[in-house]
Specification:
alpha+beta, single chain
């Protein structure tokens, strides 16, 4: 792993960065995001206030690795979606989202159930490959399910990591016992130790911790193997072709001889120390809209507040997590058709809404451009809330949208 502080956004991205300002911590931030951040609140890309010297050093080291441009000599590929974390996480600041879409595929068996195309169970098809003949994956004709996924913003992820499993489990209602039509369930994942934990990261809640979330992305999005995900994967590339395409020794992410840290450790530190995005300046009718949000049933899944458990680090000790998500799996009619980890094919983890005003496009596949588009795409468990939204008079509907624009 090299240690150069560089950007991997391409010419267009570098021009965009040139038009940006920077946070007090040296992070790029869009002019719009800067203008919409009220005084006294952390701006997108800022770390938590009050970091110790060691924590701030780890945050900066993680930021450097987030921006680092990987090469084939260092393990990039042989197939990949991006050359750095920042390619997919840069709007409105490093750690945010982007319009980059990854591709997942599958098919239906004779009973109509989801089935992976690849025998390994992998569903990812990469966008790019290193310039060696025979290394580029392609979507095969037998794939009848093709799904796209946008990057998920990482602001405040360290707080989400510290929400107790029991608090998420307490929100489950898989049998819809209260009859409200909503039947979310937690993603129960078995760790290598045998312990069962609740997943909370990823569109399918397929990861428990930021360490595994980042390690999975390092292998899947950049093709760089590590101790947690040591096996290369490139869809449709034979073992012989893989040996020809990938000459770097696995695992490619190894511990630095001086710091004894891996890149995946640095990624986790950076994500863990990213502060959540504060609320925007509310429009006058936003408080009414917040009441409407609860009344029509949006808050059933988009639970406004959680709290972290007891923690020796005061940054995470019994802190409010104003994320607007229950972190459960639901079928709200927007599922991507891909079963993954504990999630069924039509289930999606409730996306957190903090920082919503700075995110476009919306939904897991970016199909929605406006807030109203996203609401109207809901169905199934969210059909009742959608219908109640449609029944709102114009002023209450606009108040709800004003509230969402304040998040």
């Amino acid at each position: 792993m090299k240690r150069r502080f560089t950007l991997a956004l391409g010419a267009a991205g570098l021009l965009w960065i040139g038009a940006m300002g920077f946070t007090q911590r040296g992070q790029p931030i869009s002019p719009f995001a800067a203008a919409s951040a009220p005084t006294g609140q952390p701006r997108p890309g800022d770390p938590f206030a009050g970091l110790t010297a060691r924590e701030f050093s780890e945050f900066r080291l993680g930021l450097a690795d987030f921006l680092e441009v990987e090469t084939a000599a260092e393990g990039l590929g042989p197939a990949f979606n991006a050359t750095s974390c920042a390619v997919c996480h840069n709007v409105p600041a490093i750690g945010g989202m982007s319009a980059v879409l990854e591709s997942r595929i599958g098919r239906r068996n004779s009973e109509g159930a989801f089935q992976p195309v690849d025998a390994s169970g992998e569903t990812l098809v990469h966008l790019f490959s290193i310039p060696t003949h025979g290394c580029q994956p392609a979507i095969p004709p037998e794939a009848t399910i093709i799904a796209r996924r946008t990057p998920i913003p990482l602001f405040g992820a360290g707080l989400v990591e510290q929400i107790p499993d029991a608090d998420i489990l307490a929100l489950e209602d898989p049998q819809d016992r209260d009859g409200d039509g909503v039947s979310g369930r937690a993603a129960r994942l078995q760790l290598p130790t045998g312990e069962i934990r609740v997943g909370r990261f990823g569109w399918k809640a397929q990861h428990v911790s930021l360490l595994t979330f980042g390690a999975d992305a390092y292998r899947n999005e950049m093709g760089i193997t590590n101790e947690l995900f040591p096996r290369e994967f490139a869809f449709g590339i034979s073992a012989d072709a893989m040996r020809r395409c990938d000459r770097a020794r696995d695992p490619e992410d190894v511990r630095d001889r001086f710091t004894r840290r891996r890149a995946i450790d640095n990624f986790a530190s950076f994500m863990r120390m990213l502060a959540p995005i504060g609320r925007g300046v509310p429009e006058p009718d936003a408080p009414v809209g917040e009441q409407v949000f609860t009344t029509i049933g949006c808050a059933t899944c988009h639970v406004p507040v959680h709290r972290t458990g007891q923690n020796s680090n005061r940054l995470f000790d019994r802190q409010a997590v104003v994320a607007y998500s229950d972190f459960l799996l639901h079928d709200v009619g927007t599922g991507d058709g891909i079963a993954q980890a504990a999630a069924l094919e039509n289930e999606i983890r409730t996306p957190a809404l903090w920082g919503l005003r700075l995110r476009r496009p919306l939904l897991h596949d970016g199909r929605a451009v406006t807030l109203e588009d996203a609401i109207l795409a809901h169905g199934q468990e969210a059909a009742g809330a959608r219908q109640r939204f449609l029944q709102l008079d114009g002023s209450l509907r606009q108040a709800l949208l004003a509230f969402l624009r304040s998040l």
